[in-house]
């Protein structure tokens, strides 16, 4: 009986087991968990057919775990250049001009530097005559003076005074920066020039520009006279004034006056001593054969010696302090009295006081009859066999020879190089050679607005 019961119980459990569903085999398929990836597991009894493997715990579970948050791939960083990008191409030349627009007004009429040509004839009734109170129009034979200068406005200007150059006559031009207080207009080029930069000039401290165009300085000594030109019928001495510079071995000097001998005449030109400078006050002294020449303080005022066969004329080139002396066939001199200004004194350390402004002469010479044997500080540079002794390439080339050119007084002819006899030596053909030599010199404008002549 007991055996039958055991058999029945066994059959019951067999049926029960056979009737129960078989557990499902599952695997972890996430390769992010290598310790669990592809390992076999069986579903639990609660869910024998619907389980999954929790890869993180590596166990079968009935409810699948929530999926891990999805990782969004960040975009790749922008490409960074190792060097800055090249700049845009810039043209070295300006862009082409814009196309011409024909709707714009026509260009202004051409303006002539000289008086414009007369307008074309128009066949119309003539305008009414001017009132009788206006001055009459001068005839061609009536000389007219150039228009007045505008120096009253404070700006130094000069104008062309030669009627032979109508394109430039009367035109006012400002003085160059190298000579802002005094200049003249070269009517040929219609440009302002500094007399002190031309060949044959003696200016400032004192600066010489020789006939060869080379600039040099001859300081001399204060209160002494030196021969600057000596020839058979022309002898010019210059009287130097100045101040001693304790820091130098020489004097600061300027040409205060000239003593000129020609034929049987004695001509004196000098700057009078003055403390305070005034452009309106004439400080120029001129005498011929011990006779003082009086000229009205008016530009263009002229004195002439009608009894002299040389026809000597002295003309004011400004209202005061400037004259031109012309001896036909011999020489022409332009002389201007100028002071040492406070600025000049400060720049060059002259030590000028209010007691004396050291009024002196700025001079320019033109010679007509020099012989080839001419001598003197300036005259030697016109000699036919002159070789410059000036040391070139230095800031201030200084020419020596104080003892050689020293004279005992303003009209003395006893310097060592004296050539004066009071008449032109007709036996000496060197004057003709000098004239030919002068004609062979080539002249042109220099960078400072002056004129330089070269052989």
TrEMBL record:
Lineage top rank: taxon: Eukaryota
Keyword Transferase: no
Keywords in alphabetical order: Signal
Ranges annotated as biased composition (Pro residues): 118-149
Cleaved signal peptide residues: 1-19
Record region (Disordered): 118-159
Annotated protein name in UniProt: Root cap
Natural source organism: Cucumis sativus
UniProt keyword Signal present: yes
InterPro entries reported for this sequence: Root_cap
Pfam families, sorted: Root_cap
